[in-house]
DNA sequence: CGACACCGTTTTGTATGATGATTGACGACG
DNA sequence: CGTCGTCAATCATCATACAAAACGGTGTCG
């Protein structure tokens, strides 16, 4: 297995990144000095610096000698970085973020469906169909359902053959997983939404780009409504915490 | 001025990142060990490690003990990271990349125009108009024209008020700058394209979302054609190097 | 009194060396 | 032939030291 990086460095980066995106440090504010972070987090300066370098790479902070490490304005944050998005999700999802997320999904997912339909390879289409079958399989299990839903959407991005779409899908997969988890937290996927998935799948496999885009638009609409219902009244209050 | 980070670390990250995206290391291949990189680049291991950490944060490499540092498959790269995109541009732009770039611009920019029209603030609109004025100003200067064009498009993203659109704009700004540079390398912006910019600007300021989206679609079409002409025949060969 | 140059302090940037932890490979043994 | 243990390569982390840059204050000179 590829571990990616040491535990401590990743933990420090997550700790600092999470606190920043959660608003623990206001933009423009300076973080504690490296020496103080070492003491607070109980790690060496090397580890702190490597973690801060990662945050810098994501546009969260700017660091300069004598000035210290400053939190940059949110417009400079790389919101499409999977980790940044993950930290935001972990910090809690509010209505504004959900609106913005669906706004952008509505912007590119229908187009991705169109491209997947018109030029996806046979293998791509088989993968999409396979994930739909998994999603529609009897014997409901929450985790498996969420995974299948996520895989279904990601496979569509892959089928576009456009690296930007693929990266976009990877970037928002964390947020997608959250939204699937929210809408399916109590009940299995509604029959109507399952039907809409089927429409998308069928249109793509028929290489009908227009129909695929339209179906995806409908699916997003329905999903947004389901989520609004799940999030608004009886559900958790305004901000929803991610599962531990 | 905020320097962001030390010179050497940034230089090492750019050097390695650039070589990776340029194909100098094939995906799956292992980079030289940290010790060898120290020797090759003439820096200490600390610096190399901080640079590699940044590359890891962008999804370009995975590091594990004994295995060394491996280049990940391109699907894992965070293509929307401004630096990654910048390195790709610096490594040369081919027809495939241009197609994919315009595919995604065509997906996002019309919608951004629509949102900017319907809910951009007065200040946002003033900024857009200001950049257009600058673009249309007499007394042509290549650098100033490119900067104004870029600022015009970025201001539209900012006016959406959606952090994802804003990040997207920042991410592709490097590529946008390149494409503007290509199309305007010899002549100033064509009158027809200037007119299309005016249409976009006017539609946004009139808060006519549909017209703004349509105008932007036309503008992208025209721009793509101009670029195809500039890049194909007499221009530089198949791959175009970025300006130094 | 004001402007300018200088210096010291603070904080990050880089270098160096050492030690621990993890993992893949190879060989021994049942 | 398969399983398991040892080994070595490599990264992960730590501690320390010095260099460089930037800001603030201070002193001098006009």
Task: Please give a structural write-up.
- The structure is a homodimer of 244-residue chains.
- By secondary structure, the first copy, chain A, is mainly α.
- Chain A has 2 domains: 7-76, Arc Repressor Mutant, subunit A, CATH 1.10.10; 82-231, GntR ligand-binding domain-like (Four Helix Bundle (Hemerythrin (Met), subunit A)), CATH 1.20.120.530.
- Chain A has helices at 7-21, 34-41, 45-57, 82-91, 95-119, 122-136, 142-160, 163-183, 191-205, 209-231; strands spanning 61-64, 68-71.
- In chain A, strands 1-2 form a two-stranded antiparallel ribbon.
- In chain A, a hairpin with a 3-residue loop joins strand 1 and strand 2 (68-71).
- In chain A, helix 1 packs across helix 3 (45-57), helix 2 (34-41) packs across helix 3 and helix 4 packs parallel to helix 8.
- Chain A is elongated, with a radius of gyration of 20 Å.
- The two termini of chain A are 23 Å apart.
- Chains A and B meet through helix 3, strand 1, helix 5 and helix 8 of A and helix 3, strand 1, helix 5 and helix 8 of B.
- The first copy, chain A, binds a DNA duplex (30 and 30 nucleotides) through helix 1 and helix 3.
């Amino acid at each position: 297995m590829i571990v990616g990086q040491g535990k401590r460095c990743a933990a420090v980066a997550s700790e600092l990144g999470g606190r920043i995106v959660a608003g623990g440090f206001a933009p423009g504010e300076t973080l504690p000095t490296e020496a103080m972070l070492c003491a607070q987090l109980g790690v060496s300066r090397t580890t702190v610096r490597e973690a801060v370098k990662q945050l810098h790479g994501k546009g969260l902070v700017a660091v300069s000698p004598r000035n210290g490490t400053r939190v940059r304005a949110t417009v400079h944050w790389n919101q499409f970085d999977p980790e940044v998005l993950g930290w935001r999700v972990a910090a809690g999802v509010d209505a504004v973020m959900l609106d913005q997320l669906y706004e952008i999904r509505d912007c590119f997912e229908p187009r991705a469906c169109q491209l997947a339909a018109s030029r996806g390879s046979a293998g791509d289409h088989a993968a999409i169909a396979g994930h739909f079958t998994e999603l529609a399989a009897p014997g409901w299990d929450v985790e498996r359902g969420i995974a299948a839903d996520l895989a279904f959407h990601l496979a569509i991005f892959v089928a576009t053959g456009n690296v930007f779409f693929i990266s976009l899908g990877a970037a928002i997969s964390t947020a997608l997983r959250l939204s699937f988890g929210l809408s399916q937290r109590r009940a299995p996927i509604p029959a109507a939404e399952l039907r809409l998935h089927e429409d998308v799948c069928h249109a793509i496999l028929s290489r009908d780009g227009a129909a695929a885009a339209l179906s995806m638009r409908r699916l997003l609409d329905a999903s947004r409504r389901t989520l609004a219902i799940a999030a608004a009244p009886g559900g958790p209050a305004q901000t929803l915490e991610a599962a531990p």
